Amino acid sequence: MTTHAPAPATLPMTRAAAEKKYPAKMPRHGNASVYRIVVIGLLAIAVLAPVGLILYQSFLSAAFFSPRATFGLDAYRYVFTDKNFYEALATTTIFSFGMVAIAVPLGALVAFLITRTDIKGKRLLEILVLVPMFISSIVLAFGYTVSVGPTGFVSLFIRSLIGFVPWNIYSLPGMILIAGLSHVPHVYLYVSASMRNLPSDLEEAARTTGASIWQVSRDVTLPMVLPSLIFAASLNILLGFETFGIPLVLGDPNGIMVLTTYIYKLTTLFGTPTYQLMAVVAVVLILITLPLVWAQRKLLRNARKYVAMGGKGARVATLKLGGSGQLIALFIIGLWLFVSVLLPIGGIAVRAFVDAWGEGVNLFDQLTLANFDHLLEVPSLVRGIVNTVILSVVGGAVAVGIYLMVGLAGHRNWGASNTLLDYIVLLPRALPGLVIGLAFFWVFLFVPFLTPLRPTLVSIFVAYVVVGLSYGLRLLQGTLLQVAPELEESARTTGATIGRTWRDVVIPIVRPGLAGAWALIMIIFLREYATGVYLMGAGTEVIGSLMVSLLQTGAMNTIAALALISVVLTGAGLALALRLGAKIHD
User: Fold this and answer.
1) d(CA 191, CA 229)
2) Which of 284, 396, 434, 498 would bridge 522 by S-S if both were Cys, CB 3.0 to 4.6 A apart?
3) Residues whose CB is less than 8 angstroms from the CB of residue 585 and which lie 6 or more positions away in sequence, other chains included
4) How far apart are CA 178 and CA 250, in angstroms?
5) d(Cα 129, Cα 585) in Å, to the nearest integer?
């Protein structure tokens, strides 16, 4: 997202000169320091309180609110002697690294074709390749079930042709393949940003020696964007450990568990909530993912060291693919889009308008609107749709305001407090949405003055804000950095306080960017599902969490209708983001 600040007519005098000429008018930094301390303190409470409660709960023998709860290591002893835990841990590791093995090479290739070549339809492709990133993974998983599952539409067609279905999505390889394909946009996002800034001199030199376009991408471009690839790989490993929707929909039917679904299974292991066991697994996840978050921060800070080979005047030109190269490139991206976008969304669209499906069923005879009629007849489902819209539209706007306040606390701040702020912001990334939702459920139970808010949308909103903290702050920081420092310094030299400078200079300039950020945060809130699983109750239903609960009942018709509504809402949000000028590929 880009907001261009107008350049001042003349550069302001230096701060030292201004202090000498207008000693009484120069503002002090005290207000900014107090503001930063307050923001960091409140943010630390919001982030560290649930994490601390998880840690506290893990050392108890029962739920923290139970009078029978005592301190001890019984919960750790149970988990660390449970073979299912080690199976889930091993499966999660294989799942995460397998996902990376698919997503990173394919994402890098797509980024190279779109940013470094003259591929046709580039502008449209830049939008389409990011679509899977904005769709809830549980929606995608359900879409694959009804399109390429054992009795899916595509599977039945293939069986009629060759007599069998040559794939099984209800397996670990199937889960890895689907997750890897759906996470290609996460790789593309970072690698393409790095590739856009590379000069093309070396690539063109390689082409003049007779190297093919594919050899250039492998031997020239790849080494220059290696830091971005490593960052994208670490991000996808982290996302793999956090994934819940795909393993729940595709793995659970065959008894395949990852750590997130293992936590979910522990909910009622003994007939009552086993919060202490869930907390232990959550602590394990934190210990695994925190080093990845730390490594990401280091990679992000050092990435600019490697984007060299050309200064500001470096010439950037696209490589010519030629006729056959265009066909191959478009076929690669088209095939990935077909499998990653068209198959799952198409499956959802068809399933939402039929009341039966399977072998021997003529879909045209089953067309109906009854699935949507049923939604209107069930109050909890209607509330789920309304609540989802309220949380995404209104909650997204409020969240942007919160992220802006946090972003201003770190704006032009290069001290130790900014480093502390960075780590606090990144900490929620070490936690799956399922765990954050569970932690806030405990917080709203544990803190007396928050207890009345637990059965309201406020509890889900707070959890959503924390889940989207890292992404939202990155959006706002990128927008704030578009403001020329000279403009702020000009206001400061006239005696304006930092607060007034932000209010009268910075915020008016970035206001268009805030609108685009709101639309993107709205999409993030629309697609969120795992965070609300434990916070959901009568009156606080949301679409994603309803789908998780309905999976246990097998209400496929209702799930299909909800999934299609989720896709439509997400599509509307994405269209609005583009309309408002959000630049989603940077």
Assistant:
1) 6
2) 396
3) 126, 130, 189, 192, 193
4) 10
5) 10
Residues written for the chain: 586
Which parts of 117-183 fold into alpha helices (H)?
122-128, 137-148, 153-162, 172-182
- Give the dihedral of Cα atoms 513, 514, 517, 519; nearest 10 deg: -110
Cα torsion 368, 372, 377, 380 to 10°: value is: 150
Four-residue CA torsion sign, 487, 488, 489, 495: positive
Q: By CB neighbour count within 10 A (0-12 exposed, 13-18 middle, 19+ buried), where does 415 fall? A: exposed
Architecture of domain 369-586: Orthogonal Bundle (1.10)
| pTM tops 0.85, yes or no | no
Handedness of CA 67, 71, 77, 82 (dihedral sign): positive
**Region for 554 from its dihedrals, namely left if φ exceeds 0, alpha if ψ lies in -120 to 50, beta otherwise:** left
Instruction: Give the phi and the psi of residue 296 in degrees, each rounded to 5.
Output: -60, -45
Is domain 90-307+336-367 annotated with CATH 1.10.3720.10?
A: yes
Residue in this structure with the two tokens 């201004």, named with its chain if needed: 18
Q: Do domains 90-307+336-367 and 369-586 have the same CATH topology?
A: yes
Q: What's the CA dihedral at 392, 393, 397, 400 to 10 degrees?
A: 30
Q: Which amino acid is at 157?
A: F
Domain boundaries, the chain: 90-307+336-367, 369-586
What average pLDDT is seen over the chain? 81
pLDDT digits (tens, 9 = 90+) for 197-230: 666 666 667 667 767 777 777 777 777 777 778 8
Q: Has residue 16 got a pLDDT over 70?
A: no
Which residues does 482 contact at the CB level (< 8 Å), separation at least 6?
2, 3, 4, 5, 509, 510, 513
HSE value, Cβ hemisphere, 13 Å, CA-based, for 584: 28
Q: What is the DSSP letter of 367?
A: B
Single-letter code of the amino acid located at 447: V
Paired residues of 354 in beta bridges: 367
> CA 246 → CA 84, 141, 215, 251, distances in Å?
19, 5, 35, 7
Tell me the one-letter amino acid at 560.
A
| Distance of alpha carbon 259 from alpha carbon 82, whole angstroms | 13
Structure tokens at 390: 């309220």
